[in-house]
Amino acid sequence: MENRSELGLIVKNAGMDVFGQVFNTLFSFAASVIVTRTIGPELFGKYSLANSIFQVLFILAVFGLNRGVVRLTSKYMALGDPARAKGSIISGMVLTGAFSLALAALAAAAAPVLTHRFYSHVVDLDLVLRVYVIGLPFFALMTISTSYTQGLKTLKPTVIVEMVLRPVARLALILLLFLAGLRLFAVVLGSVGAFAVCAVVALVLAVRTSPFDFRKTRGIGVANELFFYSLPLVLANFMNVLISRSNVMISGYYLDPETVGVLSAALVLAPFVSISLLSFSKIFAPIISELWEKGDRLALMIQFKTVSKWVFTLSLPVFCLYLLFATGILGIFGGGFMRGAAALKILAVGQIVNAVVGPIGFILTMTGRQKINLVNSVCLAGSNVLLNILLIPRYGMIGAALATTLSLSGINILRVVEIKILYGFTPFRRDLAKPAAAGAVSTAVSYLLSRLLGWTGVAGTLAMCAAFAVMYFVVLYGLGLREEREILKDMLKRKKR
Asked: Cβ neighbours of residue 410 under 8 Å, at least 6 residues apart?
């Protein structure tokens, strides 16, 4: 019963997060379409280069402290120590505030040298980067606040701030600045303004969400524990961002900005395959920590396998849609982006591998094995950079997509082996065959239907995508979802009480 209750909590919070992800996806996708159709592939390529550099700086600014805050908050709440739970967010704020301000100042000063050395053919990239890094401290502080509430095992503040407020504020600001006559800088300034607004709101919600009187509770600092727990994570996170961003940064060195813009559009879409992984991982992370502290490995194994199955089930239809309709989906950004279809299909393969293994990286980091995660990430980030350098000059954006997919698949296969050796289980269950069968049937029927009807263009693509989604979930339901129905029934019973 307790195991089902925990799974119910995961479903409830993940369901809330999925709603937020859908909302965020719609607004972010709308913003991307508006931006690409307004500024075109070349300027979008410049923005993507600046954004990739910004993401690397963000990892250094947060310094792995976001995962540390989740871990220590959940740990001290489980131990009945609200003073140190409060100390987790305070220590995180102080440390990341100092790191982010220092990095923003350093990046602003070094931008002309950096861009001239590596991207001399990209005009005004240094100015774009200087403006963008203004948002670094705000983004970092927002992340620490939402990590604290994740540690309290609630995703509501994260959904409100990161998935609703930020995309809405960003899109609104971008539109206003477009109307004022700005183009590329409308996108950059809109992003910075949204970070600032969200940082304030996230902190307010963190205080209000605390199950104890936040203002009256005297916080006990945990800066040393937080820093040394997070230290191995910062390099691991840095390596992870190299895996996801090095293709854009290295492509910017070898390729023209327009091609980088097309690749960036494919990179915007590819993570939608595994978007449910992020939703489930956010709430599952503190539960991993709590179960590990209690020594309940059986419950950890059961819940890990169940969550992994749910992630794969929700990720597979998006993967299939990209394989079927990549050209039409990219056409939504504009005709100039359709040549990225092959790259999108390759990137989608890496994302479905990422989805099928579930939140496996969190199993390592939340059970004190973050050093192993670090070694994994260092080795594979190095491989990713090397593959990009080898493949991009020869194959262009296809080479960049291949490098990312090989690296992402490699790190996940390695983690599966490690989890099996360390804990004796894997993320796989026999009933993964059900979503796989539903995906195969729906893909085959949709392919034949699309050939028969011959629908093209944005409207035809969207209609076929909708038909595929309905077909997939109907077939899946017909194959049986007994466990999921039982968990939902249990949640409804507890609500009535």
From this structure: 380, 383
